[in-house]
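Researcher: Structure for this, please.
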Amino acid sequence: MRYRIATDVVWMADDGEVRLYDAGSGEFQTLNSTAAELWLLVSEGRTVDAVVAETVRRYALEDTVQAAVVARDVRDFLDSLAGQGLLLAADTTPSPAPGPSA
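Model: Predicted structure, token format:
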């Protein structure tokens, strides 16, 4: 499965954070550094499995128990963003991801 950033979400990466504006709801959010890393991986068009694998590699490669926790948390977080309408399910064909707004 792959997510893409919803077209009505305006975002920018800055200082290790990602700032989001959802034009549909009128809400602003700031993602902390870890959440920002996940957002940026999604913005590159990576699959959920690839985002999970990269995050486990960065934070829990040597500990299989911790790796399972990280994998679950990453999936839950991405699903949460999808539940908010910030991410949308994408087909398996990569499409250009919108970049950060200037």
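Researcher: Any notable elements?
Model: The helical segments are 33-43, 48-59, 64-83. Strands lie at 2-5, 9-14, 17-22, 27-31, 87-90.
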